[in-house]
Design goal:
Shape: globular
Mean pLDDT: 90
Order of helices and strands: EHEHHHHEHEEHEHEHEHEHEHE
Oligomer: single chain
Low-confidence stretches: none
Helix content: 40-55%
Number of strands: 11
Largest sheet: 6 strands, parallel
Strand content: 15-25%
Radius of gyration: 21 Å
């Protein structure tokens, strides 16, 4: 068995899921590699889609919402023969050569774009390839009905009817959850974790992370917390890849010793263990990680 995991750089959740899968394959001594599916169209296309996804999500969330709803309301735009389908599957030929040339017999997709591309590979070239799609959200994404893969892993059995309604074949559905990294299953005691991240263990700790793009009303929420919480409450805000937000927040809250502004977080597991409350967007990966930790959540309306 040799596994290829295909993700897309449209938000870090899909890549995080792919990393968790690769980690488990390594633990099981299964040869495994992870690739960006969009690079098989071209590296330029991958960068273009990734960059504009981030820009729209950060600066025009209303436009993102409208676009996503349009995709839900008009599923025909993903049907075979449509311009969008042809665009997303134009890398199928190159992907097929990569799969066959590298000896992969199993392909796992963590994004619907990758699933569409693999469906085209199976249909036209490699009918015996073992294929799987893993949903990284607690809902059926647009284009699910176009996937022709062996297995569709969904987060929970309660979502079976929704995925079936959106065109996923019932016999392919496997309700076994969203993969997260192994380190998240190891939990430090709350006070010990607070010491590990440099906080007073007697303080309460609010952790705010709204995804890898650092988007949403983080600045406004932090201002509200800074002006209302007593000194024995610490607030950690992860701006992630949003460097402009990081610099602006660092300046704005420099005189607030209980407000801790961070960029990328490398010790997410320990930081979550140190938290008493988690403010996050309702993404599939972040909410699953919080559930694994048993960490109470407040969901922020980012988009």
């Amino acid at each position: 068995m040799k596994v290829l995991i295909l993700s897309c750089n449209t938000g870090e959740g899909h890549n995080s899921c792919a990393a968790a899968l690769e980690e488990e394959c390594r633990n099981q001594n299964i040869p495994c590699d992870t690739e960006d599916a969009l690079r098989f169209i071209s590296p330029e296309v991958s960068r273009f889609i990734s960059n504009w996804h981030v820009r729209i999500y950060r600066h025009a969330p209303g436009l993102f919402r409208v676009g996503y709803r349009a995709a839900e309301d008009h599923p025909a735009q993903f049907h075979e023969g449509s311009a969008l389908y042809r665009y997303l599957t134009q890398g199928a030929e190159k992907l097929c050569g990569f799969i066959a040339g590298s000896g992969y017999d199993t392909v796992i997709c963590t994004h619907t774009f990758a699933a569409l591309m693999v469906s085209e590979v199976v249909k036209t070239h490699l009918p015996n390839l073992n294929t799987c799609f893993i949903a990284t959200d607690y809902t059926a994404s647009p284009s699910c009905d176009r996937m022709q893969l062996d297995t569709c892993v969904i987060p929970d059995a309660s979502l079976r009817a929704e995925f079936e309604k959106n065109g996923v074949r019932p016999e392919t559905i496997l309700p076994c959850g969203i993969p997260v990294r192994e380190e998240l299953y190891t939990c430090l005691p709350n006070r010990e974790a607070k010491r590990a991240v440099g906080l007073d263990p007697s303080h309460r700790h609010l952790l705010m992370m709204t995804g890898s793009m650092g988007c949403g009303p983080m600045e406004r929420i932090t201002e509200l917390l800074a002006n209302s919480l007593p000194p024995e409450y610490d607030v950690t805000v992860a701006c992630s890849s949003n460097r402009q937000l990081l610099r602006r927040m660092e300046r704005r809250f420099a005189d607030k010793p209980n407000i801790h502004i961070r960029g990328f977080i490398s010790n997410v597991s320990v930081l979550m263990d140190s938290a008493d409350l988690f403010l996050t967007k309702p993404g599939g990966i972040s909410t699953t990680e919080a559930m694994v930790k048993g960490l109470p959540m407040v969901l922020v309306n980012v988009v």
